[in-house]
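Quarterly update from the structural biology core.
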Amino acid sequence: TLHLPSVAALLPKLVSSASRSARVPTSRYRVGAAALGSSGRVFIGANLELPRAPLAQSVHAEQFVVALASQQRERGLKRIAVSAPPCGHCRQFCCELNCADELEFVFGEEQEEEEEEEDGEGEGPRERREGANGAPTSTSPTSSSAVATLRALLPRHFGPHDLAKASGTKPKLLLDDSGVSLELTPRSLAAVAAAAAAAGEEQQGTEEGEQEQTSAFPASALAAAAEAALCAARGSHTPHTRCPAGLALVWRSGEEDEGGGEEEGSKTTATAAAATATEKKETDNKPSSPPLLRVSAGGAIESAAYNPSLPPLQAALVAAVADGMPPYNSNENRRRGLPSSRASSSSVACPSVVLGAVLVERPRARVSHAAATRAALAAFSRDSPPPLIVLHARGAARAPGAAEGESGYESGSEEEEEEGEEEEEEEQ
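Predicted structure, tokenized:
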């Protein structure tokens, strides 16, 4: 029993464990985070990197817990504990929150003390210290971690309210109880039905310019993935561009073969046959447990400053890791010369884990995530990237029941979509 006075005091104790879930093939720098929601729920997360991809496509630990809280319909965050002081990227990202003025960060000394104790150089807790950028911080009675508000860490920040003043609109903030009204277009509905009926054959009647070979996509999961991506798009936070987008990842939850040292996509026929024979022999001695297909989805989260925005693929990856996505393949880990003890947190994505993705966005939107998503998915395989199916949805640009101008800052997006819908109907 820890005998802590509050749930908030528990957060720093969870950071070290959370950091073990980090996927950091490039930086090898693990960061953990734990957040306390206004409902009393606790969300934990870690930083995620895509193998062989630019670090700009990474997910920071603070972004992880914020995105996870949004996906779980949390309506506010009180405090976020993190391994180290939040970087400027994460401070700006958190300015989108409806609780930004009251949000507190806990960081620093507890993690440092753990490291000092391991080295035998611990000097005991300090009562007070200066925070990042010289911001004054305090310590709680039960923890040596520094505490600072977002306001202290990022004074005079630029955020949604600044855009709202410039456009004369009401700002829409992250974790507000709102969304957008979206439904799949008739063409996209027909595409899902055709692909599911064909059970993995070439998809017929896909959106113009978005034809994909779906033979590698698990057709049995397509309908569920399409629905999950649509729901994620409805809940995405995109008030600055008014271009909602959601993505669903289909992934394998079973154990992966680590003995052969070869990636699944590069196996020869003989190797595959030998593996099949070995698997059959093993199943004669123990009950079979085929891997299960899982679907995890996330919606885009925009920032008023643009750069800290979280694309829908990364948001879906947050959901997948939170859902228990298997660790990345340790074979690549060995090629990089990393110790096997760090394989669970510092390896790269196994190509057999992610089987495909479904992206839902508006037709002819001024912002499309299709090309960037395809490029990012390529990081999950050296040979054949997981297939991406792009579906289109249309509907009101504003939240259901909201007045005109309450959910976005840029004019013209809704009109552009209506024009695109008319063109699409004429083409049909």
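The first strand starts at residue 32 and ends at 37.
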